Amino acid sequence: MSPLLLFPDSARASQGCVLVHCAAGISRSPTVAIAYLMQTSKLTLDAAYKQVKSCRPSVAPNFNFLGQLTAFEQQLS
């Protein structure tokens, strides 16, 4: 599992907070947030995407990231 998906759990376990950030907040950081929700909350790609988009309407992971999220969803199932 990617360290990107392990770190938030360790921070939360010690009562910490996690900020997922990238330059524009449109593609890279939402991709990480979506993957984290898929992994930890057992959400589908569609459900995780909708949850992140409800918090930040400008979310639009690029085509390659969506492909990786689709593959990740298949790995999880």
TrEMBL record:
Keywords: Hydrolase, Protein phosphatase. It is an enzyme of class 3 (hydrolase). The keyword Hydrolase applies. GO terms for cellular component: cytoplasm. Residues 1-77 form the Tyrosine-protein phosphatase domain. Transmembrane segments: none annotated. Its EC number is 3.1.3.48. GO terms for biological process: negative regulation of MAPK cascade. Coiled coil: none annotated. Residues 5-59 form the Tyrosine specific protein phosphatases domain. Belongs to the protein-tyrosine phosphatase family. Non-receptor class dual specificity subfamily. This is protein-tyrosine-phosphatase.
